Amino acid sequence: MKKALLGAGLAMLPTAAFAHVGAGHVDGFAHGFGHPVGGADHVLAMVAVGLLGAQLGGRALWATPLAFMGMMAVGGALGMAQIGVPFVELGIGLSVLALGLVLAFGVGLPTVAAVALVGFFAVFHGHAHGAEMSDTTSGLAYGAGFLLATGLLHLVGIGGGLAARGVGASLRPQLFRAAGGAFAVAGAAILAGAL
């Protein structure tokens, strides 16, 4: 299982670095919806947020994904307004690495700390795309599509996490550790590409 997850993470690495340079079309709902699933950094971060919510359970199950989406919208608005956020690409890579490590080590974060962590990293993800969007209606449609796809990726992570929580108690931590390790390896590669 660990080898399969690690292999899947490594297979995504070639698309990971500099996912926001020359992003192509950044207008319209369809482009916004398709963009998150086209970059490994987004898929990994958004699925990891869902997994984290499922791993922590309780209010974190819904609070972490909603915090990510809300703060991603804030970051997007900052980017559209051309308000600079430093080290965006590093923040995106670090988000995958940090979330992977939290999952891998089973860090029992309080819900408020998990919300703060994912909210902080969501600003980088949102800013990267807000800076690319036009301030027209098609740019807003792009943002709506992007948010919807983000929510669906969170649901994939939540579903996987809930499935992992449904297995035997002895196997459950190993599944989260393996997934977290794969995310952390991918995050390290994204960071290396951004440096």
Shape: globular
Query: How would you spell out the order of helices and strands?
Result: HHHHHHHH
The SS-based structural class is mainly alpha
The counted number of beta strands is 0
Main beta sheet: none
Low-pLDDT residue spans: 1-23
Strand content: under 5%
Q: What is the number of domains?
A: 1
* Radius of gyration (Å): 16 Å
Averaged pLDDT: 85
Distance, first to last CA: 31 Å
Fraction of residues in H or I helices: over 70%
Number of helices: 8
The gist of it:
The chain is mainly α. The protein has one domain (25-194).
Structure description:
With 195 residues, this protein is mainly alpha-helical. It has one domain. Helices cover 75% and strands 0% of the residues. It contains eight helices and no strands. Helix 1 packs parallel to helix 8, helix 2 packs across helix 7 and helix 3 crosses helix 7. The radius of gyration is 16 Å and the shape is globular. The N terminus is likely disordered.
What labels would you give this structure?
195 residues; mainly alpha; disordered N terminus
Q: Topology, please?
A:
Blueprint: H1 2-11, H2 29-38, H3 40-56, H4 60-80, H5 88-104, H6 111-130, H7 137-165, H8 172-194
Helix pairs in contact: 1-8, 2-7, 3-4, 3-5, 3-6, 3-7, 3-8, 4-6, 4-7, 5-6, 5-8
